[in-house]
Design brief:
Its main location: membrane. With 724 residues, this protein is mainly alpha-helical. It contains 28 helices and two strands. It has helices at 2-14, 24-44, 47-63, 72-93, 97-113, 119-135, 142-165, 172-192, 203-212, 216-221, 229-244, 255-280, 288-293, 305-327, 355-365, 371-391, 400-408, 413-441, 445-461, 467-484, 489-513, 522-545, 549-577, 588-609, 622-642, 650-658, 668-688, 692-715, and strands at residues 213-214, 346-347. It has a two-stranded parallel sheet. α2 (24-44) runs antiparallel to α3 (47-63) and α6 packs antiparallel against α17 (400-408).
Length: 724
């Protein structure tokens, strides 16, 4: 029953229209690259050559739409070079299965391991496998193979030249990432007005940090406005949380709470204005009411103590945001300094210096339990098996089956199955549409070439709205290209539909045979997050014990590590909820409760971070003892969670009673902060601590709850509750 419910979710996901901002100018420019290649080949060579040459331009263009922070022209050139290399090497080994199959297996395995570098590298690498499968059937000699590879590479060059000559929103993705980070903090401030303990998802800040990493050549041309506001958002975040929190900030009711709501509303308005300014590159208007709220009247200020301290700090930070919004991101036009002694930008290695990075990333994933490694094994097996099956079928284009498998496969279950459904649905719709037009128009290579370019433009436009919808026009593009090459649609169209279905089925079966489920790994992911959170909370406490620059740097590094661990947990948890396997060691309810507990520990540390004393302020030496106890207990508890043992906070309780708990009014924020941390730890222990009998009963209840949810969905009486 769970497989049926999961497959229903897969079908809905594969056919869902995703909300995404369309980029028609980018699609038009990329389709122009395809048109240049097809038109030139039709004019100078032949229709058949034009059909094969379009592969490089189309695939290189599609690669530029992937989420990456490198220049699009570099991605286009890299994709074109990879496609050309796979074409030529594949031809050298073609002709005999004893040479081609090992090459295909090794190449597909390497393409699967490319996911260790990120989704962009993995997707581009998968297209090179498809290129190898298609183009080995086209050349007739080594010279022709070199010529064919060169034309494919020129497709990438054509795309890169168009990007260089006709830039569309240069640094647009980086601007959007930074604007999204500021808008996320603005939304958080707005939610805090009504819910003082509202959670915050740090993903936009993590994305903005990733986008801020640039190569030295990029740093020389990066707009100055992209240099500083990310740090401003990072500093504002804990301050608004501290101001809103009734434990360490403004009182729960009364004039102080009203004043806090005013400041939070003004912060939201100003940060939204700064986000619009950065996104559009133009000055943004700020409501006068919001600016007036920032004027502090010393005699009439109703906030006191830590709340007043947070309010004053927030006013200082919002003044910087006001400058950004009012200037439209045009201030500080001086170039970004590149001095060797100063780390003025986050360093991203150049393409020529990626080899050590690639080696380290691949080495980390070369283990049997790695999802990337298992994906690479599946990809190699499916590509070779699909090629063998296709070679035995009485069809001319049997390579479509392994190509369909390779292009839908992803390291996780849900995306693989959803893309398989989307590819089949899109192929059916696109083939039907294109076939009708082919029958109506008759054989004309130039007309089919124009229709192929239009289909490519529509596929690029809809690329981010859902795989099924972009695949519809990709399928039409292929049909028109076959028409350009003189292929009879009566044979090729039914073949493509059947082989796409076969390839998708093989890809889905491969995941069942050799899966990489995230459900069994949830305790380990939770343990990693717990240990990282413990280190972050301990680093904050050490900054109270001795507020030095070194401790602040340690606190920053621990915060980033905590966010990475939280993101890894969240991704694994979302994948596990959509997997058709039973929970192992951590039920859905336990996972949810443990997640909320660790979010509470995160939040307690963030609140304390906003009140970390300055270097010239008084020290709180008792915080060091609690930091050591907290770090030791959370590290031990992480091992306990992995081994399914109950965690214990003995050292934390001893330190709390011995020192920090008795600080009184001398350090109320520190005292209240450690109390919140202890409460979060107790909630975590409650979530994951059970006797062996309770664990057996809990697993049985979890199965019963899932079955009840499926039954309720079947009769329409209740919505389905996703389980892990």
């Amino acid at each position: 029953m769970k497989w049926l419910r999961t497959f229903g979710e897969v079908v809905r996901s594969g056919l869902t229209i995703e909300e995404a901002r369309l980029e028609p100018l980018l699609a038009l420019r990329t389709a122009a690259g395809v048109a240049i290649v097809i038109g030139t080949a039709l004019w100078l060579v032949s229709p058949a050559f034009a059909a094969s040459a379009a592969l490089g331009a189309y695939s290189a263009g599609a690669a530029t739409f992937q989420r990456t922070w490198r220049p699009r022209k570099v991605i286009a050139l890299g994709a074109g070079a990879g496609l050309a290399l796979s074409t030529f090497v594949g031809y050298l080994a073609a002709g005999r299965l004893v040479t081609f199959l090992p090459l295909l297996a090794v190449w597909a395995f390497a393409a699967g391991m490319a996911w260790s570098l990120g989704s962009t590298a993995g997707i581009v690498a998968a297209t090179t496998v498809g290129s190898m499968l298609v183009t080995v059937t086209l050349p007739t000699s080594v010279g022709r193979a070199l010529e064919h590879a060169g034309v494919i590479a020129l497709g990438g060059v054509a795309q890169a030249v168009l990007i260089l000559l006709f830039p569309v929103r240069r640094w647009g993705a980086h601007r959007d990432a930074l604007a999204d980070a500021l808008a996320a903090v603005a939304d958080y401030a707005r939610r805090l007005r009504h819910d003082p303990v509202a959670p915050f998802d740090p993903e936009p800040l993590m994305t903005a940090r990733d986008a801020a990493a640039v190569t030295p050549s990029q740093a020389r041309t990066r707009p100055p406005v992209l240099h500083g506001p990310r740090g401003l958002a990072e500093r504002i975040l804990p301050v608004v949380a501290a101001l809103a929190d009734p434990d360490v900030g403004a009182p729960a009711e009364g004039p102080g709470r009203d004043r806090a709501r005013e400041l939070l509303g003004a912060a939201a308005d100003i940060l939204d204005a700064a986000a619009r300014s950065i996104r559009r590159g133009t000055p943004a208007e700020i409501p006068p009411r919001s600016a007036d709220v920032l004027r502090v009247d010393e005699e009439r200020e109703v906030l006191e103590g830590p709340a007043r301290q947070a309010a004053e700090r927030l006013v200082e930070l919002l003044a910087e945001a006001l400058e950004i919004a009012a200037s439209g991101g045009a201030r500080d036009r001086a170039p970004t300094p590149l001095g060797p002694a100063s780390a003025q930008f986050l360093v991203r290695p150049t393409m020529f210096r990626l080899l050590p990075v690639v080696r380290r990333a691949v080495r980390r994933e070369l283990r049997r339990d790695s999802p990337v490694f298992r994906h690479a094994v599946r990809l190699a097996a499916v590509a070779t098996l699909g090629y063998l099956i296709a070679s035995r079928l009485p069809v001319e284009h049997g390579y479509w089956a392994p190509i369909a498998s390779v292009m839908v496969m992803r390291p996780d279950f849900h995306r693989t199955y959803a893309r398989a459904v989307g590819r089949l649905a899109g192929t059916l719709a696109g083939v039907a549409l294109a076939t009708g037009m082919v029958r109506a128009l008759g054989p004309d290579a130039h007309v089919f070439g124009a229709l192929a370019v239009v289909s490519a433009a529509l596929a690029y436009t809809l690329l981010r709205t859902g795989y099924a919808y972009s695949q519809c026009f990709t399928a039409a593009y292929v049909v028109f290209l076959l028409g350009v090459g003189g292929q009879a649609w009566e044979q090729t169209v039914p073949e493509r539909v059947v082989l796409t279905l076969l390839g998708g089925a093989v890809a889905m079966l491969a995941y069942v045979v050799f899966p990489a489920w995230e459900t069994p790994r949830l305790p380990g992911r939770l343990a990693d997050w717990l240990a990282a959170d413990g280190r972050y909370a301990a680093a904050v406490l050490r900054s109270y014990a001795e507020p030095t620059r070194e401790h602040r740097a340690d606190m920053r590094r621990a915060l980033l590590a905590s966010r990475e661990a939280r993101a890894a947990w969240q991704e694994a948890y979302e994948q596990a909820r959509r997997e058709p396997v039973r929970p192992r060691g951590l039920t859905t309810r336990e996972a949810e409760e443990a997640q909320e507990a660790l979010k509470g520990l995160d939040r307690a540390a963030m609140l304390m971070e906003s009140y970390v004393p300055r270097a010239d302020s008084g020290f709180a030496p008792e915080a060091e003892r609690f930091a050591e106890a907290l770090e030791a207990d959370t590290a031990q508890a992480a091992n306990d969670v992995r081994e399914h043992r109950n965690p214990d906070w003995g050292r934390v309780e001893e330190a709390l009673h011995a020192g920090v708990g008795a600080t009184g009014d001398r350090s109320p924020v520190l005292r209240r902060g450690v109390e919140l941390q202890k409460r979060a730890l107790d909630d975590l222990a409650t979530a994951v601590s059970r006797t062996p009998l309770e664990r057996d009963v809990g697993s049985a209840r979890e199965d019963q709850r899932v079955r009840a949810a499926v039954a309720a969905e079947g009769d329409g009486s209740a919505p389905t509750h996703g389980g892990g």
